[in-house]
Amino acid sequence: MTKRSPGRRRPHPHHHAVLEAPPSLKSLPGRIRLERLDNGLTVCLLTNRQAPVVTSALFYRAGTRDEPAGHGGVAHFLEHMMFKGSARYGPGEIDRITQALGGVNNAFTSHDGTVYYFNFAADRWTEALAIETDRIASLTLDPEHVASERQVILEEIAMYDSEPWDSLEMAVHERLFDGHPYGRPVLGTRDELLATDGAVLRDFHRRFYRPDNAVLVVAGDLGDEGDEALAAVERTLGRLPAGAAPRRGPTPPAVLPTSLERLERRKGEVARLLIALPAPAGSHPDHPALRLASTLLGDGRTSRLQHTLVEEEQLCVWAAADLSEGLDASLLTLAAEVVPGVEPNRVEARVLELIAGVFDRPPGEEELERCKQMAAADWVFGHEKVHQQAVSAGLALAVFDLEHLDRHLDQLLATGTDLLLEVAGRYLRPERGGVVGWSLPKL
């Protein structure tokens, strides 16, 4: 007997299990319904009628961390090829149809996964399901298109390499996550791309682009129960066979620096600083408190980096801190652009002093409360649109679990000074291991 979610009014031809999900999340507006189809596809229906639009976002658990040796960049290369033709949609046709229907589409690849999304008016969004189904079932990978798209990505690599911030970031990541996929560029290298042909792309597609390795989020104006939306998914993606290869087990741990290592490059016209420190995986209980510490240091005008380096001492044009959220590990970064004429060493010393200042001058109630308000406001402003809500829900489901969003926010808002200092003591210690990256003006 198939379990059915409450409120279902009529049976559908496909059986599927209802997954345990909260009816709603504090961190996202709308009602949630979570199901797993017979072929393993996880479907999250997020009903939110704030506007007559629907976003469909399809997440594959296949990113840089899943690439075969010697073929770095294949996940991103395949993302490009997914727009270059399948049995029912010729090259460029997906974009033409999307525009003709007044919608937008896009995709992005990260170290942990690949995401494809469409935003349409609520009366025509199911076209996205037909497209996604066809490019799983019958992607063309025409050799001429593979060759021309490889050229496009090689130009993209060259562009990143010539851009001072991008190239500094990639060099710092590579040094920090030595031996781990997170240290590799998502685009791959020139040599790896030249070694990657249609057969390699097809194999990656066959292994990972299967319903049982995917999460589909449909968010927006879905009607009362989302029954029609679910029926539309079952008629399309629900008919595809399962058969994904298992994701590789734990990746080898990165060989992290045991002291503060330095990296210098000469590029561009201004001095740029990027300090990177290893941080725990997004699911780790320390992550929310470390996010609050990152907010304290470098989020907004009242943050310590911005206030000291930009407003008061006028050493930097801007300064910021950020914390990534990865499956295996994360990355805490402190970045600044130096005012021309200011000595870079002076800025570096000052940033390290401000990191140490978290312990020397712990935040009081008022400062901590302001940081919590900032973090909560950032979340709310970042999720005003249905599209943003869909992407966050999908990333949480594909990498962690749906409750991750509420759990993270709740824990952050419950963090007091003692916990913040305890967690900061584990990660905000640059002398124990990290990378100081400088991009200095060309001589």
Structure description:
With 443 residues, this protein is an alpha+beta fold. It folds into two domains: 16-239, Metalloenzyme, LuxS/M16 peptidase-like (Cytochrome Bc1 Complex, Chain A, domain 1, 2-Layer Sandwich), CATH 3.30.830; 260-440, Cytochrome Bc1 Complex, Chain A, domain 1 (2-Layer Sandwich). Helix content is 40%, strand content 19%. It is built from 15 helices and twelve strands. The strands form two sheets. Strands 1-2-3-7-4-6-5 form a seven-stranded mixed sheet, sandwiched between helices. Helix 1 (74-81) packs across helix 7 (198-208). It is globular, with a radius of gyration of 23 Å. It starts with 15 loop residues before the first strand and ends with a strand. Mean pLDDT is 93; it is low at 1-15.
SS-derived structural category:
alpha+beta
Strand-residue fraction? Answer: 15-25%
Q: Strand-and-helix sequence, N→C?
A: EEEEHHEEHHHHHEHEEHHEEHHHHHE
**What is the end-to-end distance?**
73 Å
Number of domains: 2
CATH superfamily of the largest domain: Metalloenzyme, LuxS/M16 peptidase-like
Helicity level, as a percent range? Answer: 25-40%
**Second-tier CATH architecture of the largest domain:** 2-Layer Sandwich
- Strands in their spatial order, largest beta sheet: 1-2-3-7-4-6-5
What top-tier CATH class of the largest domain fits best? Answer: Alpha Beta
Q: The CATH topology of the largest domain, please?
A: Cytochrome Bc1 Complex, Chain A, domain 1
Describe the main β-sheet briefly: 7 strands, mixed
Rounded mean pLDDT score: 93
- How large is the radius of gyration? 23 Å
Q: Residue ranges: pLDDT <50 for 5 or more in a row? A: 1-15
- The number of E-state strands comes to 12
Give the overall shape: globular
> Helix count, per DSSP?
15
